[in-house]
From TrEMBL:
CDD domains assigned: EngA1 (cd01894), EngA2 (cd01895)
Descriptive protein name: GTPase Der
Cited PANTHER family: GTPASE DER
PROSITE patterns recorded: G_ENGA
SUPFAM superfamilies linked to this entry: P-loop containing nucleoside triphosphate hydrolases
InterPro entries with a match to the protein in the record: AAA+_ATPase, G_ENGA, GTP-bd, GTPase_Der, KH_dom-like, KH_dom-like_a/b, P-loop_NTPase, Small_GTP-bd
Alphabetized Pfam families for the sequence: KH_dom-like, MMR_HSR1
Oligomeric and partner information: Associates with the 50S ribosomal subunit.
Lineage, highest ranks first: Bacteria, Pseudomonadati, Pseudomonadota, Alphaproteobacteria, Sphingomonadales
Length: 466
């Protein structure tokens, strides 16, 4: 199978790169705001344009700053994106016209080996006519005039991309449809969707860079560097599998650090936190990353509870273990606090890792795959009801007001997360304590371990209700 073409969008801050990215991928994946510098890491997505299928990269606004500074580290990510791209879309704001930074970017691009397509954004109406005329001095030919916000000019963009990207055909000579199905059925060899969540500066981006073996995400001492949730596809070679069968696909999702809600006042940080919560929705397994130098805080429990409320399988990883002090007491203290603070889930995996040295990464990925298998497990109706009859016989439901609650049978209605339906009469009066008894038994006896299990109560319709 041929390599998917890669297109990078570059330009100075706030010219509309993320808006075009969202339009081409068909989803609002990248955060968009009026202020410059919203995008920091490079974000990738699968794009389609009139039958052209390609990988699109949204980059941070190019700024001429010292390489050690945050803008300088952002620029390095942009340069890496252009180096791997088959073609670059150099975007400028046609209404503002060219500014010195545009000319600096043009000089840099003329020295690169990547073909460049000049894109004049915000060109709706005649407001950008002067800027478009001025852009001819950059030496990239006539710009593609478009409006990323309103979707104008996309046919012209298609014509400009066509020499670099051929429409994919199937055996019958028809265009191959494009797009990922987020609701695809579970298959053991499907990519593991693994989200890393936690408080700011817990080391999420550093850990992912260590896993990937490259500086894919921007890191540094500043808290809150990550804003968008960034998904990166990767192949993990499982050391416990035979060669040739060891390649396992992983989609790693880095998220913005989540502070206490009372401390989040900035609009952009609110968008970043909302984006992180949205990333949890699309994950299968969520890793809550703790900072070993700070231990477990109440905010960590809130973040973990948010993942469990969404029904996601949860793993707790203690990062920076290479510099932790009093490791044994720290580990036992965190485990005990988790058992108390997240009492709805018992036996949750707690691991130690180091984003700096790579310690514990293979164990983390192995447990993540095992946890996904458990989260996707389905038990047969016969086996389930044999267990159910024994559970009810060992501990019959109470009889509130002297009236018996009759529990008839149970079925597993769904997986990912596991969901069960309990049928019976007067189940609306079944105490929560008894429901927890059943859920804990399902986890303990039927192989669901420490994953969220949901129980729904159903009563037959009463023909005399009317």
């Amino acid at each position: 199978m041929s390599k998917t073409p890669v297109v990078a969008i570059i330009g100075r801050p706030n010219v509309g790169k993320s808006t075009l990215f969202n339009r081409l991928v068909g989803k609002k994946l990248a955060l968009v705001d009026d202020r410059p510098g919203v995008t920091r890491d490079r974000r990738e997505g699968d794009a389609t344009l009139v039958g052209l299928n390609f990988r699109i990269i949204d980059t941070a606004g190019y700024e001429d700053e010292d390489a050690a500074s945050l803008p300088g580290r952002m620029r390095q990510q942009t340069e890496a994106a252009v180096a791997q791209a088959d073609v670059a879309l150099f975007m400028f704001d046609s209404r503002v016209g060219l500014v010195p930074l545009d000319e600096e970017i043009a000089r840099w691009l003329r020295g690169s080996k990547t073909p460049v397509i000049l894109v004049a954004n915000k060109a709706e109406g005649k407001a950008g006519a002067d800027g478009i005329l001025e852009s001819l001095s950059l030496g990239f030919g006539d710009p593609v005039e478009l409006s990323a916000e309103h979707g104008e000019g996309l046919v012209e963009l298609f014509d400009a991309l066509l020499p670099y990207i051929e429409p994919e055909k199937n055996a019958a000579g028809e265009d191959i449809p494009h797009g990922l199905d987020e609701d695809e059925e579970y298959a053991p060899d499907a990519p593991l969707k693994l989200a890393i969540i936690g408080r700011p500066n817990a080391g999420k981006s550093t850990l992912i860079n260590q896993i990937l073996g490259e500086q894919r995400l921007i890191t540094g001492p500043e808290a809150g560097i990550t804003r968008d949730s960034i998904a990166v596809d990767w192949i993990w070679h499982d050391p416990e599998r035979e060669h040739g069968e060891d390649a396992r696909k992983v989609r790693l999702i880095d998220t913005a650090g989540m502070r206490k809600r009372a401390n989040v006042q900035d609009k952009l940080e609110k968008l970043s936190v909302a984006d992180a919560l949205h990333a949890i929705d699309f994950a299968e397994v969520v890793v809550l990353l703790l900072d070993a130098t700070r231990g477990l805080e109440s905010q960590d429990l809130r973040i973990a509870d948010a993942a469990l409320q969404e029904g996601r399988a949860l793993i707790v990883a203690i990062n920076k273990w290479d510099i932790a002090e009093n490791g044994s007491s720290l580990f036992n203290g965190i485990r005990g606090a988790l058992e108390e603070g997240l009492s709805q889930i018992k036996g949750m995996p707690v691991l130690t890792v180091s984003g700096a040295t790579g310690k514990g990464i293979d164990t983390l990925l192995k447990v993540a795959f095992e946890t996904r298998d458990t989260w996707s497990h389905r038990v047969g109706t016969g086996e389930l009801n044999r267990w159910f009859e024994k559970a009810v016989e060992a501990n019959p439901p109470p009889a509130p007001g002297g009236k018996r609650i009759k529990l008839r049978y149970m079925t597993q209605a769904k997986t990912r997360p596991p969901g069960f339906v309990l049928f019976g009469t007067r189940v609306d009066q079944l105490p929560m304590s008894y429901q927890r008894y059943l859920i804990n038994g399902i986890r303990r006896d039927l192989g669901f371990g420490a994953v969220p299990v949901r129980l729904t109560l159903r009563a037959p319709k009463n023909p005399f209700d009317r």
